[in-house]
Amino acid sequence: MNREFRIAVAWLLLSDACYAVMRVSTRMGAAVSDLSWSEIAAFRFLVGALVPLAMARVRGTSLRVRDQRNAMLRSLFGMGGALALFHALGTHALSVGDATTLYSTAPLWVAVLSGPILGERVGRSVWLAVVVGFVGVATLLHDGFDTVGPTGLLVLAGACSYGLAILRVRRLSAHESSEAIGLHMSVSAGLVMLAIAAPSLAPIPAVAWAPLLASALSGGLGQAVFARAYEHGSASMLAAFNYSGVLFTYLLELALFRRVPEPHQWLGASLGGGAAALK
Length: 279
Known about the structure:
Elements (H helix, E strand, L loop, with lengths): L2 H29 L5 H12 L1 H10 L8 H24 L4 H8 L2 H13 L5 H17 L4 H28 L5 H20 L8 H27 L2 H4 L5 H14 L5 H16 L1
Helix pairs in contact: 1-4, 1-10, 1-12, 2-4, 2-9, 2-10, 3-9, 4-5, 4-8, 4-9, 5-12, 6-7, 6-8, 7-13, 9-10
């Protein structure tokens, strides 16, 4: 592992840690309020947009996006993933850990699609990783459709959309600042979520401010540094490390909610992580 790739992995692990905080904070905000999932998501993205703005000011980087086509595609695919994830977190349809495990199949889509879309070499080990990864998902869903329900399938579809977003980030990061990429996504997703939430907008109760701010700021930071990772490493290789977010999330659930994952959940997450490592 050369120095450039180690830097990429470090940025990606930081991003995954931030996203784990975002997911758990989102669930906490939903638990202490009656806010709709879309209003929670709108708050996360619009307030989270302050993070890339502040980072750009400190670093003196440009927020101008020149490649509008890929930026729009990145934001569109990212919104697809965000809609699925925040619906699951805001409606309590899945545990945070299970939603994260299902959503973290995105790296497998990245590995499979990075060849035809980015022209990156994808070996036979990737196809083995795909099989093992979906065995992990099947293990997680072993209690049946009634347990995970349509929300689980929605999160899986969101993971595919997010995987496509990651591929666009790889293209954009070659000539756009990470702050510009993050801001574009935050504002675009925030406005769409706000439009969805408009009919049911409600005042934010005092008890929900802390977790929602934690979700917005950690998510905004994770989004900004995520693009940094892809400045230094290929999409297919970095995909192997995205599963660290599952471990971070389960540990946070254990610490904050005293929720101990069941054996099949640990096994499903481990198989998913092993699948990523195979690449």
